[in-house]
Structure formats: structure tokens, C-alpha cells
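In response to the reviewer comment on reproducibility (Comment 2.3), we provide here a single inverse folding case reported in full, input and output, so that an independent group could reproduce the run without further information from us. The C-alpha cells appear first.
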């Protein structure tokens, strides 16, 4: 009873009107959301986490269909989608994007109309090729909206970006929630090193570092981005990161040394991504459906990565930090991106970081689909 009262008090602290503004919202890029709306999303995510940890069920949308399409592999995000939808009473379905008619040329807008008529929430991962994923998601959402408008259907069918070529917003919001929890809420003055790290496994998308540099300075972090030459992030994201620092009182700078980024950092986020020039070369090969060219580019990308095997998060580098928190979106490449002993030391922390994504997705689905969500959350405490 005391636990429910404490939770109720926390919920009373939330801004009812601000939470209502989440109604009808889809999340494609955090850059498109106001800071206030991102704050509301985090407040709702924290409320769902608190309810879930107390085993309080929150079936707000029973028997509705939460349909997610993945054009790339996933372990964490797929299960977070399924876990979030189930906790809201929805039925999660996850399909392989390459098994849909998109593979035969059906457009994103047509796909959106079809899925929007049948489902009650949509998730999409489309992150492999620069310039494609965000455009696909935007067109798909347009298809959903056009269909619903044309048929006078007032259902809210939000679209959640489960990683595109530009951003990985459910991941980066989870990261922000974890940083806040770890550092007690206030991130002002906290230095976060977002650095490239060596990977021999595959040329990874740019969306996580781009999502981090555009989001974290808006919430007060002092973000230092470090990468070797040739691994620049998108120019729009770099520009937004500068503006983000001005808006949020944080800072943003780019260096070319992993040691410099780590020195004095409160948190480090070393992860690999593909060299930008080769990632751009992939666009034409993908448009032409040239699998051999894509394979050849991938081999060159891994050879480029192999020139920087010393970009590893090891205990010597962790020693440069201010007893820094190791972060990774996972999966990490042990022995390449991170020394196995560092990964072992932070095994539980990175799992807790990953777990936040489930509550971010719950907040996105419930926020977009539930009128009077604040009151409904309070009712769960009774
Ligand atoms: N971090 C992340 O998005 O993990 P998955 O690729 O397993 O979903």
C-alpha cells in the first residue's frame, strides 16, 4: 500500500497536459520532437517501469495489433517491442521485411496504407542503406495517415522508428533514461564520450552515434565525439548537435583521439560504424540491386576498419575516465570494440541500459494511443 502511495505521488508530479500532447504522435527522429515532449515521454516510460517492477498490469489496449517490420537483424529491439506491446495488452507480431512485398517493389506508402488498415501500431527497422530508412518510414507514415483520413477512421496508428539510417530513437531515449538513473537525474556537466571503435564483424549503421550526439547535449551532457579520419557522421546531425548543445546547456565537440575523448569522461559509449564514403557508395549498389558490388564494398569497409584496431575500449582507457560508466547499445564485439574484461565488468549495467527500451516503447505506444493517459496511469495505482 505504501508502495502504491509513493508511486501515486510520483505520478501526481507529472504534467497532465504535457503528457496529453503525446497523443497521436509517431517517433521517427528525436530531432523532430520538442524537448518538452521528450521529457513527457521519459516521465511516462519511468511510470511504466515503476508499475511493471511492482507487477502492476497495464492492459490499456487489449486485443489490438502491434505490427513491426524488420529489414535488419535484431535481438533487443524485437523483444522490447513484443514485451512492450504485451504489457499494454496488445498482440505483437514481428515480420521479416524482406519477406514482404516491399522486396517485389511495393512502395512504402502503399505498405503503410495496408498495415495501417489492419494494425493499431507500427514499428519499423530499416537501417542498412544511407538515405533509405528514414525516407521509407516517413513515406510509410504518410500512407497510414492518408488511408485513415480517406476512410474517416479516427484510430491512432503510431509509427515507431526501431532504427533507421539517421537515428535509433528508442535506443537513444533508453540510453538517456539510463544515464539519468545512473547519475541521479541531472546530466549537466557530465562528459559523455561517443567514440568509434574497431569492429571486424560488419560495417555498422551510423544511426546510434548520430542519435546520441543530437540528443544528449539537449539534456545537458558535454558530448565529445571521437573517430578516425573517414568516419564522419552526417553533416545535418553534426549541425543539429551544435544547436542541441545551445538549447540544452550542454556542449559538443569532435576530436580524433579516443584517449582525449575518454579523459575525464563520466560515461563512455565506444561503438563501431562504417566509414562514410563507403556507406555512401553502397547507395548506388543497393539501388542497382548489385549484390556482388555490395559484398565488395563490405569487404573494403572491413579492411578500412582493420586499419584502426587500436580503437578499443580497454582497462587502460577506462582508467583515463572519471570512474566512467561503460555503455553500449549491444551487441558489442568483445576483443575488438571492447576488451572482454571491461564488458564483463559492466555486464549488468549494459543489460539495465537495454531494458529501458521496453519502457520507452510502452510510453510511445500508450502516449500516442491513449486519451487521458495520466489519469489512466493513476488508476493503476488504486
Ligand atoms: N541495440 C539494438 O538495437 O539491439 P538489436 O539490434 O539487437 O535490436
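Designed residues, in position order:
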Amino acid at each position: 500500500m505504501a508502495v502504491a502511495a509513493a508511486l501515486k505521488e510520483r505520478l501526481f508530479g507529472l504534467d497532465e497536459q504535457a503528457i496529453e500532447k503525446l497523443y497521436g504522435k509517431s517517433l521517427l527522429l528525436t530531432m523532430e520532437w520538442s524537448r518538452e515532449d521528450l521529457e513527457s515521454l521519459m516521465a511516462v516510460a519511468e511510470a511504466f517501469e515503476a508499475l511493471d517492477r511492482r507487477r502492476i498490469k497495464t492492459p490499456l489496449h487489449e486485443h489490438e495489433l502491434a505490427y513491426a517490420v524488420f529489414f535488419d537483424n535484431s535481438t533487443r529491439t524485437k523483444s522490447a517491442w513484443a514485451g512492450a506491446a504485451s504489457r499494454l495488452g496488445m498482440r505483437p507480431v514481428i515480420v521479416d521485411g524482406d519477406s514482404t512485398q516491399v522486396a517485389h517493389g511495393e512502395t512504402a506508402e502503399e505498405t503503410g496504407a495496408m498495415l495501417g488498415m489492419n494494425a493499431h501500431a507500427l514499428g519499423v527497422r530499416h537501417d542498412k542503406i544511407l538515405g533509405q530508412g528514414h525516407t521509407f518510414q516517413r513515406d510509410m507514415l504518410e500512407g497510414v495517415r492518408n488511408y485513415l483520413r480517406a476512410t474517416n477512421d479516427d484510430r491512432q496508428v503510431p509509427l515507431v522508428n526501431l532504427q533507421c539510417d539517421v537515428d535509433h530513437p528508442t535506443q537513444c531515449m533508453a540510453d538517456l533514461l539510463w544515464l539519468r538513473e545512473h547519475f541521479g537525474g541531472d546530466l549537466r556537466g557530465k562528459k559523455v564520450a561517443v567514440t568509434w571503435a574497431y569492429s571486424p564483424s560488419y560495417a555498422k549503421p551510423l544511426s546510434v552515434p548520430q542519435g546520441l550526439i543530437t540528443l544528449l547535449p539537449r539534456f545537458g551532457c558535454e558530448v565529445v565525439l571521437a573517430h578516425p579520419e573517414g568516419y564522419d557522421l552526417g553533416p545535418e546531425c553534426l549541425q543539429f548537435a551544435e544547436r542541441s548543445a545551445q538549447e540544452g546547456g550542454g556542449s559538443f565537440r569532435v576530436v580524433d583521439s579516443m584517449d582525449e575523448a575518454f579523459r575525464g569522461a563520466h560515461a563512455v559509449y565506444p561503438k563501431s560504424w562504417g566509414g562514410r564514403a563507403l556507406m555512401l557508395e553502397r547507395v548506388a549498389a543497393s539501388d542497382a540491386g548489385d549484390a556482388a558490388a555490395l559484398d565488395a564494398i563490405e569487404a573494403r569497409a572491413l579492411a578500412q576498419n582493420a586499419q584502426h584496431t587500436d580503437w578499443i575500449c580497454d582497462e587502460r582507457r577506462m582508467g583515463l575516465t572519471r570512474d566512467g560508466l561503460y555503455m553500449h547499445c549491444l551487441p558489442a564485439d568483445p576483443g575488438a570494440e571492447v576488451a572482454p574484461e571491461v564488458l564483463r565488468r559492466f555486464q549488468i549495467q549494459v543489460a539495465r541500459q537495454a531494458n529501458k527500451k521496453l519502457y520507452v516503447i510502452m510510453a510511445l505506444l500508450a502516449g500516442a494511443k491513449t486519451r487521458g493517459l495520466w489519469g489512466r496511469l493513476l488508476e493503476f495505482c488504486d
